[in-house]
Amino acid sequence: MQRSDFHYDLPEELIAQFPTGNRRDSRLLHLPAGDASPMDRLFVDLPSLLNPGDLLVFNDTRVMRARLFGAKESGGKVELLIERVLEPNRGLAHIRASKSPRAGSRILLEGGGVLEILGRQDDLFIISSGDVELPDLMRQAGHIPLPPYISRADQAIDEERYQTVYSRQEGAVAAPTAGLHFDQAMLARLDAMGIQRACVTLHVGAGTFRPVRVDRLEDHVMHSEYAEVSEAVCNQVRATRERGGRVVAVGTTSVRSLESASRNGAIEPFRGDTRLFITPGYRFRSVDALLTNFHLPESTLLMLVAAFSGYERIMAAYRHAVDQRYRFFSYGDAMFLERPEDS
Predict the structure, then answer these.
(1) C-beta of residue 159 within 8 angstroms of C-beta of residue 145
(2) DSSP 8-class letter at 208
(3) Residues of the chain above pLDDT 70, percent
């Protein structure tokens, strides 16, 4: 398939710039397993689409205050996005500046602190925070790294709303946005229904926003992200299947985690980097239903959901969402996708 096959026209005013008043206030587009047309629902209807014994799999990553602003010692302005913490005082970063800083140069941060450039690793810079631990420096001087399609600076509301209520493992530069719709009351309601819960970890990287630049999908090199799927989660998935329940992934990052752990056929513990690129024709091994937000045109995530629900069905659903004025992307509305019965 071609990248252009995944283009759709999206009016700019449908890109959500702020979260809804409450987490559960979003709309929900339901794409059933059969041939039924997309159904317009509300996110609060989600429990009616689940069954006792189903397993919801969440991504418990937590967004770092990974965007930092500063200046070179020569005075030139610099913007950094910390992609990954390697050691307590060392990490990898994207750097935006009029001229790339050289190894040995220092960046003086707004809000206090100094970073030293140690060198390069591929298209990233290796940085050192000296005697201060890098996570502490980010908490002191960093900003919530809102996605590039949100055309405003981060605000106090983003400190809470660009995190899931169940986030635990700090390390992401973007939120697993399907989980932003859940509040504690919704989780308690699902628990009371007998819906099971599990957590994987995938630290979402800036590559999630990187456009596909090649025409043929098979020529695309997928970005790398760190993921963990524990033995306990594997056991929960197996038990769910044995009792006839469904494994419901909350977000594409949960899909990629579970499917990375199932590459050999059966699910088994996984820890490490994944470059799993899911496109139409992929055979899913561990996921039966998917809750997800809407994704960018020609993006790897749109290709994943097209693989899950069928290309024609997902593109028709996106056209429906545009016509019905759904809100798109990180702070936007959600979709509930049931896997076609013949996939």
Answers:
(1) no
(2) G
(3) 99
The tally of domains found in the chain comes to 2
Q: Tell me the whole-structure pTM to 2 decimals.
A: 0.96
Q: Which domain holds residue 44?
A: 3-63+159-338
Taking the alpha carbons at both ends of the chain, their separation in whole angstroms is 18
| Cα distance between residue 80 and residue 42, in whole Å | 38
SS3 for 41?
strand
- State the pLDDT at residue 343: 56
How many CB atoms are located within 10 Å of the residue 76 CB? 13
pLDDT at 35: 80
Q: For residue 192, count other CB atoms closer than 10 A to its CB.
A: 9
Q: What are phi and psi of 31, to 5 degrees?
A: -115, 100
Residue written as token pair 């045109």: 297
Question: For residue range 5-49, what is the model confidence (pLDDT) as tens digits?
Answer: 999 999 999 999 999 999 999 999 999 988 888 999 999 999 999
- Decide if 154 is inside a domain: no
> Is residue 154 within 8 Å of 146, Cβ to Cβ?
yes
Region of 53 on the Ramachandran plot (φ > 0 left; ψ -120 to 50 alpha; else beta): left
Return the number of other C-beta atoms located less than 10 Å from residue 168's C-beta.
Answer: 10
Q: What is the pLDDT of residues 62-81, one digit of tens each?
A: 999 999 999 999 899 999 99
Q: What is the pLDDT of residue 119?
A: 97
Residue 152 lies in a domain: no
Phi, psi for residue 234 in degrees, rounded to 5:
-60, -40
